[in-house]
Amino acid sequence: xxxxxxxxxAVDDRPTMHGWWDSEATARDQFRQVVGQHGRPGARITLTxxxxxxxxxxxxxxx
Length: 63
What we know:
With 63 residues, the protein is an alpha+beta fold. It contains 1 helix and 4 strands; from the N terminus they run ββαββ. The protein has one domain (5-59). The chain has one helix at residues 24-38, and strands at 5-11, 14-21, 43-49, 54-59.
């Protein structure tokens, strides 16, 4: 079974990096690190709960 929390970095609408974790706290820490390292124009970063399909957070924030 695949871990529950999925992090996706897309640049110019192309997936460039994925990560999965069992722990939501760990996944959120990784999200913050990816935003710090890769957050720039053209990037989209999302953290999703694959069990529920809910987007937990995203960068940039939804307007």
